[in-house]
Specification:
Length: about 170
């Protein structure tokens, strides 16, 4: 992290009740998964309220049918983390679409037994990502957006033909 990013990270993490545990887990995860980056931003809850929270944004590598795909995710950490699970989303790029299923809804929210049964210290970010990799390898949460079809040629409406074009 740059000096500015580190300073911002520390500033925002200060509001976390268990900041030492949170910082340690984030450090462990970003050391292993180089595409995940800590970010601070406003998270908007279902009731419309918002709060500045830390998240891990980036991709996790998922093997599917012999190929590795980078699945874009965002893992929001509540200020009570690690005693409450992250709020997790698949964040498709402009070339991707969400594939809804039993683990991902139309908004990209991720539902996993691991999150539902979250209990510190047995549950952590690293374990969560490992579960995502396995589950998404069986049922990918995104797919490539179909290539744009060639549109039919458009015709200008010319109104009724004038008398000179009639036989």
């Amino acid at each position: 992290l740059s000096v500015i990013q580190s300073a911002l990270f520390l500033f925002f993490i200060l509001q976390y009740k268990y900041r030492d545990l949170t910082v340690r887990e984030i450090g462990n995860v970003i050391a292993q998964y180089k595409d995940l980056k800590p970010v601070t931003d406003a998270y908007v809850f279902n009731d419309g309220s918002s709060r500045e929270l830390m998240s891990l944004n980036g991709t996790v590598p998922v093997a599917y049918r012999g190929n590795t795909y980078n699945i874009p995710v965002c893992l929001w950490l509540l200020d009570t983390y690690p005693y409450n699970p992250p709020i997790c989303f698949v964040k498709p790029t402009s070339t991707m679409m969400i594939k809804t299923g039993k683990h991902v809804d139309a908004n990209g929210k991720i539902y996993l037994p691991y999150l539902h049964e979250w209990k510190h210290p047995h549950s952590d970010l690293y374990g969560l990502i490992q579960v995502m990799i396995v589950v998404f390898g069986e049922e990918p949460p995104v797919f490539s957006r179909p290539a744009a079809q060639t549109p039919y040629p458009s015709y200008q409406a010319a109104g009724p033909p004038n008398g000179s074009s009639l036989p």
